[in-house]
Design goal:
85 residues; globular; mainly alpha; Non-ribosomal Peptide Synthetase Peptidyl Carrier Protein, Chain A
């Protein structure tokens, strides 16, 4: 069983990934920020985020859940729900 993280911890890790790896401005990263429209990410960036979050949690986000993700908050909720299983 993997380590459980709070939504705040998941958000901090995601912010680190977005800032350090994808060079997103911290002030642009909000729960409501749309990955594609607000943060100007593409599908390759989102796959990179998924891989990095998998390393962080030791759990893989199922492709059907991954396809539903549109916002920063969506990622946090999906990862948090995955950790509850």
């Amino acid at each position: 069983m993997g380590t459980k993280y709070s939504k705040e911890e998941i958000f901090e890790e995601l912010k680190n990934i977005l800032i350090e790896e994808l060079e997103i401005n911290e002030e642009d990263i909000t729960l409501e920020a749309n990955l594609f429209e607000d943060l100007d990410l593409d599908s390759i960036d989102t796959v990179d985020i998924a891989v990095r979050m998998q390393k962080f949690t030791d759990k893989k986000l199922p492709p059907n859940e991954f396809k539903k993700i549109r916002t920063v908050g969506d990622i946090i909720n999906a990862v948090y729900m995955l950790l509850q299983e």
